[in-house]
UniProtKB/TrEMBL annotation, chains A, B, C, D:
Cofactor(s) for this UniProt protein: Zn(2+)
Domain of life: Bacteria
InterPro entries: AstE_AspA_cat, N-alpha-Ac-DABA_deacetylase
Protein name: Succinylglutamate desuccinylase/aspartoacylase family protein
Lineage: Bacteria, Pseudomonadati, Pseudomonadota, Gammaproteobacteria, Alteromonadales
One Pfam family linked to the record: AstE_AspA_cat
SUPFAM superfamilies referenced in this protein's UniProt entry, alphabetically: Zn-dependent exopeptidases
Organism (species): Shewanella vesiculosa
Domain Succinylglutamate desuccinylase/Aspartoacylase catalytic, first and last residues per copy: 34-268
Length: 372, 372, 372, 372
């Protein structure tokens, strides 16, 4: 039985001078050829369940033979986690600037053509190693910008520096009131069959600001460009965002379920020696373009009718809107529905909304994923 | 079938010049001798369910014979309701001053002795009418203070002015994550058997800042003083705070349950002509002094184990605290329990807490209330 | 003497059902050929001084002969203005989503080539009229999106709909602690000589999310494309953002200065019949690429040394950082300076900062603008 | 030259597990009979200037002969200081509960009669020592409450424990936009002549929740009771709140002025060997009952006309209220004044206010204090 080794990384500094640090836990793999892994949780302050999953996963791993290096970064955003506002955690964006903590990662915008021309003589492994070094150095240069960088960018690029050193990157999030779902790049869709997650969003292979994209995009671009030059390899790096149900919730039993799902994926990838089968369950997916945000068409008090994770037929009520100020009119109580079948994936956390608040996100044009 | 009559009251003014108004709905009773009623909801911005109860109650009342005047003030704190912070409603206190909206009511501090000496020659009814007028005028005078009054006090005293004109006052709140419970003054404990609420907090007959206390205290003082002078009457005014489960939740079916409970009380008091029986259910109570706040002994991520509304034996876990930064030590995962039996009534809404955050409120020394 | 005509526009709805409305004031011009004007203020909640400028401008205009239609939209963001957090206005971003209110305008992304091909037979005036109609209709279609739009986008597109109907658009903002400065598109740099504003930022002619860009970009694109097809006209629409010193400040005397500056520009453009000369003053500019954000290299308490609007030589202290937790070391009190000459334009509002907080924005490579 | 000795005290723990600590600096006095001193700053997060004063004072003290022990606790409320909301520090109240950080101190409610009966046989010095020990132990017991205590109370009682061990306690605050003023208990009014502070509020000798009151009240009660029993001594402990101009401001030069004022008081009290004269300046005072809060009689945009610290004659404008939504009426721009002479001491920080916002605090019935 091997415990993880603890260290920490400083990601900023508070006004009082206190260092902002993230705890790190590492399992050292026994095979240098096995893929390495980086798993972080809680970049959004209220999305705490990923820490419980890491806790269960570390406890499980103590009993496995670990082949590849695995690094865990729980509580990855101390500023966001500690930022309360009333009885809730206001940890979705920098309270000073409003910028979403999950849109602060560095977009490398590598000139792949030039880089490849210079490095094409290398073997695959040496090529990958050189590319990885270039990405890490670009992050370090970013952290040393002459005019400084923002608080959120500093946090993100510090985390990204660690992620770039791994072959597999998992970013553990949750929705507001949500069922479990996975963000998976289109090129890596087969991976979705290993996690214990029923719904998968298939995302384009391009940068949108999040950790998963920041990690795999440069590699996907390299792979594409090499292919155009007649050299074929699969994308050397995998990165996913796991949305592990609802925010402001710690559930150790459920965390164990997700820890086992992650273990199944790591087993499939050869990170651990043992064989761990994925859970038998139906898995569904939709393309990001078919993932719809439903905004409140009018203000009011909201009764959330649709259950997240359960298919909803066209015309069935998504929400009821109570407008007690309009008592006595037909606007006082009104159901809102969609004209197409969907699966509601998450809904807003508050029961009273302004016009335009995002009430639900729903998958449309959902299709089944094949099992392993 | 009679609909309520709509009007509104202005309770303030926003920086842009917009009036802050509360919608009012009135049923005019057919019997001037029947008690009059004032029911408000949503003084704390996130506590919206009372509006749904009012909606159901108004709809029910359309089919009843209403004897006493009934006034409803839903959405009673427009500033608090509209104040969002992230995905939640930051409506528990004035965002400028921090003062709890429910601690802003006016403490009359009547010189009962002097007032009684001057008015003791009146008949009971005339005495009550004079006392009521004095209370209303004191509120109006308060609103016209030469140096002005605070935003929250203006709201509260406006609401209080309406409450003082009724014989029965119900203030509809919710807890954070909560089971239903009732705040009931000691002298009026019999009333607790009518509402559909399993747990009752028996509160002292003194002022603590809330609407119920602001309403009944001056009357209880008058009754006490008159009794000391050899004149006996029961406290002429009843006031209760109903905590209708959790905040940020609209549930029309459950609202109907509570509307019927209120109707049972109004029936018992003769506000409606029809006989409505209270729900058959076990009801329990504890004294306020036995209602305990459990503060987090240390910081961490919280798994809330105890179910609100269900008795918890001494030594059973209230919460588990996950401290993933202490992984590898016996502090990493720790259960917290109490040394006595209790009934957890409500818990904090967030799953990560600083040291000292109020985790649970629990009733101890709980006793059963007799049925009607 | 003619007063402006008052109306209003609804831009949203609050949770309680209250309409969010913006007051509008219009002067009707006597010459249909004169340019029309749209001026808004206070899209960021704390940036109130523009309202005072509008007040002074409306008062002045009562005494002038108005040729072109002028519409004023003060208090343009009621939700933002009314959102307090402690003693300050938290009006820079949507408190729910964190999105900057000034990055919510609609990017038309007109397919100019296709549109021009279809409309090139029109005379200039008819061409402009058709283009304008297309922009307005695109906004209206946006407001009617099937899945709804966000609160901030609804506000922005409503304002934008009004702006598109004018030839001249002024968006009145302020900085945090700031000297006056103007955002001016490169093609319209001559306009900078009319306002009473010492510093001008010359911005590219492309969309970045703000009102000025949302207004002029489609027109600049049309102009460019027409020129490429051998048809020359100047960009038919002008749009500027005026930063009128510091937020959380109302100063009527200073507002009069800026009202007169705007009047000088309107006079130059023929919106009023009278000749109003611009203030005699030195005016300077720099390109946006030379406008630098200085982030706090470390956390601490900040003494802001550099005076906004006054040139600062290389090596002179921008701020002193007090780190009393490091008393006794050479880190306890430290000056921060830049290696090049600059003009500090604005600084952060708080005197204690986390690492990475934006301390100052400074102009570098400043050049003088010629006078009128 | 002697530097202060650094240590720290833990006052809480953040959700992520980080300790909340306050840095402490101590000068050890050479005379055990000299009074000991405790000085804290920044209990309200935005009120940073006290840290600069402590910095200057520590630097000055390095050159003096220190007779009594002096302990400094700058950055005394790390949670409040680090809590930002937009560009400002939201540090006036606990963001979870709304409770003012400066109203969380422990009210001992000593049963002085019983305590004195038991200890009256002691000499004055032994009596004081026993009383002091009792206060400190009561604080320690408070920190160990079986159901825990709130975050704010934990912070306050930790600070209070240190304060109770000193003879002189200074709590360094600031107003929002404020001139310098001193809170001074009535019994200790002579002390006001030493600080470099022009205005003094003479407060009652009773508990209101703040540090100064928490410190001196038990001692004043003891002194009073002993006097009633025929034993006379002066109140053994002095405690003052210094309001050092405006929040969100660091000014080292001005901090030096206040450091010298404090030094003059410490010199007068024999804490340092050297003689330091108080600044020659006029000093004025008023009783707390004559200190008036002026609330906004209506909402609107505020031009603050009255300069803090400068006398304002009756009828002169305190503020102008701009209501641009009422343009064209006589309500559009309106001056607000008071019917009596006053000295405005501080005003609200934001330029747009809801009805009821506290605009100014003003001293009335101001009288001159004699010089030393």
């Amino acid at each position: 039985m091997t415990k993880a080794i603890q260290s920490s990384v400083q990601v900023g500094e508070l006004a009082t001078g206190q260092a902002l640090t993230v705890p790190l836990y590492s399992f050292i793999g026994s095979e240098s050829s096995a893929p390495s892994v980086y798993i972080q949780a809680n970049v959004h302050g209220a999305e705490v369940q990923g820490n419980a999953v890491i806790y269960q996963l570390m406890t499980l791993l103590e009993g496995y033979q670990v082949l590849g290096n695995i690094t865990f970064a729980p509580l990855a955003n101390p500023l966001g986690i500690n930022q309360k506002s009333g009885e809730f955690t206001l940890g979705r964006f920098d309270p000073i600037t409003g910028v979403n903590w999950n849109r602060e990662y560095f977009d490398h915008q590598v000139d792949v053509q030039a880089w490849y021309r210079e490095h094409q003589h290398l073997t695959d492994n040496a090529l990958f190693q050189a590319y990885r070094s270039m990405l890490v150095e670009a992050c370090q240069k970013r952290l040393a910008q002459p005019f400084g960088i923002s608080t959120g960018h500093r946090l993100a690029v510090n985390l990204q520096t660690m992620a770039h050193q791994a072959d597999i990157v998992l970013d553990l999030h949750t929705g507001p009131k949500s069922c479990k779902h996975l963000y998976c790049p289109e090129y890596d869709i087969d991976a979705a069959r290993y996690f214990s997650i029923p719904y998968t969003l298939v995302i384009p292979n391009s940068f949108g600001g999040a950790m998963d994209e920041a990690t795999f995009c440069p590699w996907w671009q390299l792979t594409q460009y090499a292919a155009s030059q007649g050299r074929d390899f699969s994308v050397p790096v995998s990165a996913f965002t796991l949305e592990l149900a609802s925010q402001e919730r710690i559930d150790l039993d459920d965390a164990l379920v997700d820890a086992k799902g992650i273990l199944a994926y790591l087993s499939y990838r050869g990170v651990i020696a043992e064989n761990v089968s994925p859970a038998k369950m139906a898995r569904f997916a939709c393309y990001l373009r078919d993932y719809k945000k439903c905004h409140a068409p009018k203000a009011g008090l909201i009764e959330y009718c649709a259950v997240v994770g359960e298919p909803l037929a066209a015309g069935q009520p998504l929400v009821n809107i109570l407008r007690i100020d309009l008592y006595g009119t037909d606007q006082a109580f009104q159901a809102i529905s969609l004209p197409m079948d969907c699966v509601p994936i998450l809904h807003f956390a508050s029961a009273s909304v302004h016009q335009g608040t995002e009430l639900y996100k729903v998958m449309t044009k959902v299709f089944a994923l094949p099992s392993v």
